[in-house]
Amino acid sequence: MRLRLQTTITLMICLIVALVLLIVYVMFGMKFSRQAQESLENKAITIARTVSRTPVVINGLLENSDSGSIQDYATEISAINNVQFVVVMNMQGIRRSHPDAALIGKHFMGGDETDALHGKEKISIAQGSLGYSVRAFSPILGPDHKLIGAVAVGISLGSVHSAVKQNQWIIYSGILVGGLMGIAGAVLLARKIKRMMFGMEPGEIAKLLEERSAMLQSTKEGILAVDKESRITLVNAEARRLMGSVGMSQDPVNRQVDQFWPLLRMEKVLNNGEPLQDKEVEQSGITLLVNVVPVRVNGIIEGAIATFRDKTEISLLMERLSGISLYAEALRAQTHEFMNKLHVIMGLTNMRSYDRLEEYLTDIVLSIQTEADSVVRLVKDPVMVGFLLGKLSRIREADVRLVILDDGMLPESANHEVSRELVTIAGNLLDNALEAVQGAGNKLIEIGFRHEDSRLTLKVVDNGTGISIVNGDHLYEQGYSTKGKDRGIGLYLVHRSVAKLGGTIHWESREGEGTKFIVQLPYIAKSDDN
Description:
By secondary structure, the protein is an alpha+beta fold. 51% of the residues lie in helices and 21% in strands. It is built from 15 helices and 14 strands. The protein has helices at 5-52, 55-63, 69-81, 114-117, 157-196, 202-218, 237-245, 257-260, 266-272, 311-350, 354-378, 382-397, 416-436, 469-472, 490-500, and strands at 85-90, 122-128, 131-141, 147-156, 222-227, 232-235, 276-283, 286-297, 300-310, 401-404, 444-452, 455-462, 504-510, 514-522. Strands 6-5-9-8-7 form a five-stranded antiparallel beta sheet. The chain has a five-stranded mixed beta sheet with strand order 10-11-12-14-13. β11 (444-452) and β12 (455-462) form a beta hairpin. It is rod-shaped and about 170 Å long.
């Protein structure tokens, strides 16, 4: 089972605190215990040295009397210093003082007094009549510095252990307090980190980053992000492509955006927090449509993001969508034409001119049937059939005659994309022809299809004003038009679609006589598709 981030952080910090406290206990616990024992040993040897130099003890040993002065003094010293015993012995190891008066005059027990009776101080642990104790021995010297006996001061091991435990309890208390503080700190730190990560687990963050990265890299808009110091932190694949198209091939990451690409004006957005909407940036002959917005965290600007796209591509996308508008326009024209016919029918009905009504309906039915039969007979592609039927209504409404040449036919395409591109080609050529014939007397447009050997030939002919040689040199350039501003897209889209399908297009024209466009495309019919 995978632990949550907060639990993991808490456990790890608690483990670290426990290890540190264990090391502290090992390092300082033993040292404090040893210091406590040494402190008691030093106390015992100090008392032994003091007693060994006391005149009462020295004179008592020299007189070798049992007056009791040594016993009284030793008992007093033992009580004052809170030690287990103070034993004075002569050179034969016979006790001259002892807490148990019945043992005075008997030999000292333990066997560790030998060094002291030979003039050396000693500290040892041995068992005597009062049990195990820490003993400090100090020799007693007479006035002529002659060894006359020894003093033994004892502190019971129970007292030593008690002192050691007192020091250890200090360590235990410190470890307990440190442990509780460490646990509390671990919990608080884990909660703080959790809040900083918006309550998300590492796995969730990793998944989110992967998803965001995939989204950023797959989007068709260029995305460039900077931090609050204006350093570029993120650039997606589309942004690199667009920057390459305008001549910026260097890696922009970690560079200052105002030095790398000052036209974006991202530093202005960072300073005033006001977004830039639909700003046009012209560079190397390419116009980019740029939007820059600030990134705020808790109300504070922490960076900015710029999104940009080639304005030409946006225009092309709008023109592609215009294919839908062609259908909508065709439907509108048919509706308008149908409403006119309904008004005529209603008027003839109200006038009770039933003979004229019958004649009118017969003409309408024959006309519509003739047009529909001609289209359905020569064009087998359903998309193109619907398109042409709609165009017939719109062109008829403009008082122009559209003739579908019967020297060939259009089979249904095996590739739906080819059908869509063919609608774009035919639609824009017919629109251009419709505008070209507006100044003619007998307005006529002809369209024909011929399919042979997996190739399609599309021909559109009009009797309009024609195209001059000067204008013909720029015919397929985007934005070039003699008809006014925001024109010059139709033939550019035609040329683009023809190139996309791997075909060719050429035109013939004479000023004042009309224009002919001939398009040849690779075309696999659905009936021929293997």
